[in-house]
Design goal:
By secondary structure, this protein is α/β, with parallel strands linked by helices. The chain has two domains: 119 residues, ATPase, nucleotide binding domain (Nucleotidyltransferase, domain 5, 2-Layer Sandwich), CATH 3.30.420; 80 residues, Nucleotidyltransferase, domain 5 (2-Layer Sandwich). It is 27% helix and 30% strand. It is built from six helices and eleven strands. The strands form two sheets. Strands 6, 7, 8, 9, 10 and 11 form a six-stranded mixed sheet that branches. It has a five-stranded mixed sheet with strand order 3-2-1-4-5, with helices on both faces.
Length: 215
């Protein structure tokens, strides 16, 4: 079973390829390359490592929240492959991927910028039970000052702690130095085992409107 993993939700753009339960390819684009170069580098890496695109049985997509442009490009690549060769699609929340990179006791909260100027974030709270990630809140959106509590651990996927007010910095941990692909792969395997596939025809990035409270 060949699995292509795509993560283009932030400045750290990654892709990987796994065969059954083993990752055989894990690459990160140079910081100078944007998500619009992702398809080129996937093709180049596949050719170099003698991987055939027709062997991709499943495409795992980090589906947001995150960079509008990056998510749109990742979604287009994933849907194009599924349409062209009949691959199945797995969608994984970017917030889940961030949280799963930091296995820890107690509750943790993953954060993704919604508005960097106002410090508004998408966020979700998690715990680990028997080694597996478990959500203990809905996906939400709010201002950092209303989210932060000294009792929890907060993870961000960007090396931007200096952009935060000083009183919040001690509560934040930079998760960007850890691979998104390894975390995404674990969550992908779990979804495959639970038969949680998505329909590529109706798939779309997880944008802000899904987080807007219904009144």
């Amino acid at each position: 079973m060949g699995i292509l993993l795509i993560e283009s939700s932030s400045k750290k753009i990654e892709f990987g390829y796994a065969v059954d339960s083993e990752i055989v390819l894990n690459e990160e684009l140079n910081i100078n390359h944007n998500a619009d170069a992702l398809s080129y580098f996937i093709k180049k890496s596949f050719e170099k490592n003698d991987i055939r695109i027709k062997d991709v049985e499943i495409v795992s997509l980090s589906n947001g929240p995150g960079s509008f442009t990056g998510l749109r490009i990742g979604s287009a690549i994933a849907k194009g492959i599924c349409f062209a060769i009949g691959s199945k699609l797995i969608e994984v929340s970017t917030l889940d991927i961030i949280a799963n990179k930091f296995k820890s006791e107690g509750r943790i909260v993953s954060l993704v910028f919604s508005n960097q100027r106002t410090l508004e974030f998408f966020y979700c709270e998690y715990v680990f039970e028997t080694g597996k990630l478990k959500k203990v809140s809905d996906y939400k959106i709010g201002l950092l000052e209303n989210i932060i509590s000294d009792k929890l651990t907060y993870l961000i996927n960007e090396n931007l702690k200096e952009d935060f007010p000083e009183q919040f910095r001690h509560t934040l941990k930079d998760a960007s130095k850890y691979s998104n692909i390894l975390s995404q792969f674990e969550l992908t395997i779990d979804k495959i085992e639970r038969n949680k596939f998505s329909d590529y025809k109706t798939s779309k990035p997880f944008y802000m409107k899904e987080f807007t409270p219904k009144i």
